[in-house]
Task: structure prediction
Amino acid sequence: MNTMMLRMLPLGLLVPGWCASPAMAQDTPPTQLSFNASLASDYRYRGNSQSRLRPALQGGADLVHNPSGLYVGAWLSGIRWIADAGGESRTEMDVYAGKRGTVGRFSYDAGVLAYVYPSSALATNPNTREVYVQGGYGPVTVKYSHAYSNLFGTPDSKHSGYLDLGASFPLRGGLVLNLHAGRQRVNGHGALSYNDYRAGLTKTIGPASVSLSVVGTDTGSYTGPGGRNLGKTGLVLTATTTF
Result:
């Protein structure tokens, strides 16, 4: 579940290595392959920790066809929530494909995304498949993701949806202010639906993009060992390099 941060950041944010626009210089090659690697103090996805409030190593690859805006990619991260739920997998793998572009001053991005947890051994398969569509204008983006499978191991939750509002503003000193608010609707399980938020700063330092964010949710329903609230408000530090 990349906060593709985001990669993805997030799509547009959400996945590491994704570009914001298909616009390119004349000497840009038609097809580009890039790789990314990240170290996060906590892997938060839609506000909730996937790594039990502990650090996570992450990385991925993206292949983009610039003239058409088509792309495919994969991304991996260490996780702990499957093991905490009684399963075995400690790895999340995201596989995605889509198309992005611009129409006048508006940008768009649409595609499919599969979250895969190898050998999870949970009672309900946590593997999740979503379709998404994102629109942008200036610094603001709106994205909607719709699950056409059960949502991360929640029984009878097909057709759940996530609404994502984001904005990025350049500041002095090479800093960028990133803002996000989201709403996760869990179909058939209203008590599990919640809101999440993120506010942070990003700066390029040498070969890395470094971000520090305040992240949290409005619920305590998602807990780890010892009853710890995995959606509690906290600081997340992430360093990402793309090559």
Summary: Residues 76 and 93 are 4 Å apart (CA to CA). The helical segments are 81-84.
